[in-house]
Specification:
38% of the residues lie in helices and 19% in strands. It has seven helices and seven strands; from the N terminus they run E-E-H-E-H-E-H-E-H-H-E-H-E-H. The chain starts with 12 loop residues before the first strand and ends in a 7-residue tail after the last helix. The relative contact order is 0.14.
Length: 176
Amino acid sequence: MTPAHTPIPLAETTPRPFGSLNAEAAKAFAAASASESRPFARPTPNVQPQRVLLVDDSRSIRTLLKIYLMARSFEYIEAESAEAALDVLKTQTVDLILTDFHMDGMNGADFAASVRANRDVKVSKIPILMMTGDANAAEVRNKGQKAGINAFVRKPVSCAQLMTLVDTILPPPKKV
């Protein structure tokens, strides 16, 4: 006879389609899922928060990127496509762009080339970090570099990897 197995609850969880999150992670996920642009870290006094444009056709990836970047006082703007991101750049100031390579319509390298070709110098000089989950990452990196990206990372990316790259290509915020 086998003794009955009674699972011991380790933490309060919220069911999700791909597993579960503990209560703290669920709160962070919910906060990052909010649609408005807002900082997650406490803003430093007299420092204007930097704005990050997240360009990915996957909402879950955009949310994960926000969670990874919560340690910095960033404001976020989201775009589901490169075309939507180009529209955002016409009306909003952005300090950093994080873009996926594979998206419907324009890919990340073509998007980066369009940003670099922009007549507005402030737009054409925005640091761009391109990501891909493509098996042929070397080819994608090459296309991105030809388009003028500043950094490249292969997905899945760790929080530490992402923060290191962001810290490398984005100057610290200026005091106002």
